[in-house]
TrEMBL record:
It holds the Pfam family CysS_C. PANTHER family: CYSTEINE--TRNA LIGASE, CYTOPLASMIC (PTHR10890:SF3), CYSTEINYL-TRNA SYNTHETASE (PTHR10890). Zn(2+) binds at residues 31, 227, 252, 256. CDD domains: CysRS_core (cd00672). One of its GO terms (molecular function) is zinc ion binding. It catalyses: tRNA(Cys) + L-cysteine + ATP = L-cysteinyl-tRNA(Cys) + AMP + diphosphate. Residues 411-452 form the Cysteinyl-tRNA ligase anticodon binding domain. This is Cysteine--tRNA ligase. Residues 18-331 form the tRNA synthetases class I catalytic domain.
């Protein structure tokens, strides 16, 4: 039996023992990015946090027994507008932004489908795209209309919120508050201000697909229906964990719950709902107008992905995180120290309990990292860090990467080191100092080892 994992559940507002519906097949869905532009550093948070969840579940239940689906939203108003602006199709636009996103994820040490899927076996990591699931969305919508939970009006299909007595059970917002929020601009075809769009007509030039029955004109889906369709297709009508950023609880997740439960007549869509807190930059909300909007790529241009990953995991996932240069510097120093300690050691067979236990307590990464700091056995440190997706590089691989990133001319460095060695052998201290100065001007520090060898490293 797997050790007990406890997770905080937004649905119950409590931490409780996690019990999979089928321990032989644990199923997780996370709302992924809307790929209309390069992802920002806030978007990296759910990706890294739920990557850790996936790793932990794989550790507990076995690699073949966990399925993780993280969708890609590749159709929405912003995507349509940008593709039209550039005169390309939405597929052309989103293929481009999706491949940038994949590169970002790789550099952040996030497990990718190609790392975990095994040919001929059930996929373990899926990345479904909304536009590949329009057929499933249409059948869900038709099911909702047939069940009396949705209606057609002016070429739209709307979800009939008052038809669901416990609508709002995830976000736990009072009905009158939700109504007041929705009342700002009520479309004339809505029966209730809370009703939300499942399907809408496309304007000329916008992407469109054949509409659900009862609507002749082609149209396109509303936002929420895609996740009900993709989770159903890949994980089933009910699954274990649904994850995303805290901003998605209302309306996105509330509406996903309404769609899936009312279509399938199930008591829950997912048993556990996990939400990450928001990231802000140097104490302020990140926004284009404040000029502190940073893309993942911009951060990765200045810092190794592993430093970014560690800086992200230092804060518990449900807390807000303040993204600072200081935090990155600290993470960088920590990794230097740890790599110095582990050298080229192989990881222990099992991660130490001291590191695993806090992770089993609702992914308490802050305390797992504090435990890692206390370890001095290289094999345990490597295994414990591995569970968090850290310290995966070899010492020499890391040095090579740091030299590459620094753009240093290795041949010139080696020439100067040889000059210095010759000068020292000839007791020509002035020439030896000169060579050392030339090396530091190149950004390189030299170290004379006890065994007579000289090694060098890049000055940070
Ligand atoms: P989007 O591409 O805006 O749909 O967002 C993709 C994911 O990133 C969602 O799970 C959001 O909740 C999450 N997200 C967006 N902004 C932030 C932020 N500043 N901090 C943490 N998570 C965020
Ligand atoms: Zn979603």
């Amino acid at each position: 039996m797997a050790p007990m994992l406890r997770l905080y559940n937004t649905l119950t507002r409590e931490k409780a023992a996690f019990t999979p519906i089928d321990p032989g097949h644990v199923r997780v869905y996370a709302c992924g990015p809307t790929v209309y532009d390069a992802a920002h550093i806030g978007n990296a948070r759910p990706i890294i946090v739920f990557d850790l969840l996936f790793r932990l579940l794989r550790h507990l239940y076995g690699e073949a027994h966990v399925t993780y689906a993280r969708n890609v939203t590749d159709v929405d108003d912003k995507i349509n507008a940008r593709a039209a602006e550039r005169g390309i199709t939405i597929r052309e636009l989103t293929d481009g932004t999706l491949s940038l996103f994949h590169q970002d994820m790789r550099d952040l040490g996030v497990l990718m489908p190609e790392d975990v899927n095994v040919a001929g076996e059930r996929p373990r990591f899926l990345e479904p795209r909304a536009t590949d699931h329009i057929g499933e969305m249409v059948s869900l919508i038709e099911g909702l209309v047939a069940a009396g939970h949705a209606y057609v009006a002016e070429d739209h299909v709307l979800f009939d919120v008052p038809s669901m007595p416990d609508y709002g059970s995830l976000s736990k917002r009072p009905l009158d508050e939700m109504e007041a929020g929705a009342r700002v601009e009520v479309a004339p075809y809505k029966r209730s201000p809370l009703d939300f769009v499942l399907w809408k007509p496309s304007k000329p030039g916008e992407p469109s697909w054949p509409s659900p029955s009862g609507i002749a004109a082609p149209g396109r889906p509303g936002w929420h229906i895609e996740c009900s369709a993709m989770s159903w297709k890949h994980l089933g009508k009910t699954f274990d964990i649904h994850a995303g950023g805290i901003d998605l609880i209302f309306p996105h997740h509330e509406n996903e719950v309404a769609q899936s439960r009312c279509c399938f007549g199930t008591p829950v869509m997912a048993n556990v709902w996990m939400h990450n807190g928001f990231l802000q930059v140097e104490g302020e909300k990140m926004s284009k107008s404040l000029g502190n909007f940073v893309t993942i790529r911009e951060v990765l241009n200045d810092w190794p992905g592993e430093v970014v990953r560690l800086a992200m995991l230092k804060t518990h996932y449900r807390q807000p995180i303040d993204w600072t240069v200081r935090g990155l510097e600290e993470a960088s120093r920590t990794l230097d120290r740890w790599y110095g300690l582990v050298g080229d050691a192989s990881p222990a067979h099992e991660p130490p309990a001291a590191v695993l236990d806090p992770l089993l307590d609702d992914l308490n990464t802050a305390s797992a990292l504090a435990e890692l700091h206390r370890l001095d056995d290289p094999a345990s440190l490597k295994a414990g860090a591995g569970l968090l997706g850290l310290l995966g590089q070899t010492k020499s691989g890391r040095e090579r990467a740091s030299v590459q990133a620094s753009g240093i001319d290795v041949a010139a460095v080696e020439r100067l080191i040889e000059e210095r060695r010759a000068a020292r052998a000839a007791k020509n201290w002035a020439a030896s100092d000169q060579a050392r100065d030339a090396l530091s001007a190149l950004g390189v520090a030299v170290k004379d080892n006890k065994d007579g060898t000289t090694t060098w490293s890049v000055i940070k």
